[in-house]
């Protein structure tokens, strides 16, 4: 068995060691142009040349992340099975990140930190959870984990997805026809949608205006979901109280981007859910083993849908 590793901006050493340990006897290599044909490939934002050279002979290609938007512009043969990571330790990280962001806003912890920095010992009015319904856009593996985590804190949680879902303790909406109602019943908006043509720029002036007054936006999906200028305008108008953003249209975020100057926007460097090499390798190796036994394998990407 020959496995190629073609992952942009990813330190290869932990992956190569983990693959060698998990697949003794397999030939593991970093892809270089002209490399011999492989059986399987692990990829992240691969160049088109890699696909032109390898795709026709691959048994499967594994994307080492949950999001596959970097693959969508590429020419990938329809017959090539492409798989994404399913959780692999990322869902709990995402739940942690979103839960702290929601609670930070709900409890007014930013203001307490600012007060204490100025030597002010004072309390704010206690918020009521009923006034802070949370809306989770995207109910895949990570979105479901986030929604369930938030119910533990007794928030009213709404969920929206393109196809119907049912989650205990979550009011679920589905389809574009129900998006406006979902937004109107949401004050804290959490985005975990996959990025494709139908979801690009979905957080814009119109949709932000539908949120309840004093809204808060948490984006852990992709930067392309948010129209940056529209979010800033809604914050400056006061309709949106602020935002916590982990993903951006261009990463790293350019030093002249206006987000840096917005005191009501908290920025983090795409760290809400990091890919864990050991967990990911175990999942990929398990899928390869299942394929070799002729068993069904979950997590196959529908490139036409974008997820």
Automatic annotation (TrEMBL):
Keywords (A to Z) from UniProt: NAD, Oxidoreductase
D-isomer specific 2-hydroxyacid dehydrogenase NAD-binding domain boundaries: 102-272
Origin: domain of life: Bacteria
Coiled coil: none
Short name of one Pfam family: 2-Hacid_dh_C
MF-aspect GO terms: NAD binding; oxidoreductase activity, acting on the CH-OH group of donors, NAD or NADP as acceptor
InterPro entries per UniProt: D-isomer_DH_CS, D-isomer_DH_NAD-bd, NAD(P)-bd_dom_sf
Protein known as: Glyoxylate reductase
Source species of the chain: Comamonas testosteroni
């Amino acid at each position: 068995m020959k496995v190629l590793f073609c992952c942009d901006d990813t330190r290869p050493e932990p992956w190569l060691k983990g693959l060698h340990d998990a697949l003794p006897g397999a030939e593991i290599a970093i892809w270089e142009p002209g490399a011999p044909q492989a059986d399987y490939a692990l990829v992240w934002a691969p160049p088109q040349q890699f696909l032109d050279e390898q795709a026709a002979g691959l048994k499967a290609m594994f994307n080492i992340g949950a999001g596959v938007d970097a693959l969508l512009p590429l020419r990938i043969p329809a017959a090539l099975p492409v798989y994404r990571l399913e959780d692999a330790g990322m869902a709990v990280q995402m739940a942690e990140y979103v839960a702290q962001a929601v609670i930070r806003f709900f409890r007014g912890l930013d203001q307490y930190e600012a007060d204490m920095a100025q030597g002010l010992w004072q309390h704010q009015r206690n918020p009521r959870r009923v006034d802070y319904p949370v809306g989770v856009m995207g109910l895949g593996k990570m979105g479901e984990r986030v929604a369930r985590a938030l119910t533990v804190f007794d928030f009213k949680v709404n969920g929206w997805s393109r196809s119907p879902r049912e989650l205990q303790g979550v009011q679920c909406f589905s389809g574009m026809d129900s998006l406006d109602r979902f937004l109107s019943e949401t004050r804290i908006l959490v985005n975990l949608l996959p990025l494709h043509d139908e979801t690009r720029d979905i957080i814009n002036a119109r949709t932000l205006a539908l949120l309840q007054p004093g809204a808060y936006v948490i984006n852990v999906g992709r930067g392309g979901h948010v129209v940056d200028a529209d979010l800033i305008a809604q914050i400056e108008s006061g309709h949106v109280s602020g935002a916590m953003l982990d993903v951006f249209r261009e990463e790293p975020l350019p030093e002249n981007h206006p987000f840096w100057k917005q005191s009501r926007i908290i920025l983090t460097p795409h760290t809400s859910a990091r890919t864990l090499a050991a967990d990911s390798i175990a999942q990929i190796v398990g899928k390869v083993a299942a394929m070799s036994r002729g068993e069904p394998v979950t997590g196959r990407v529908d490139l036409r849908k974008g997820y």
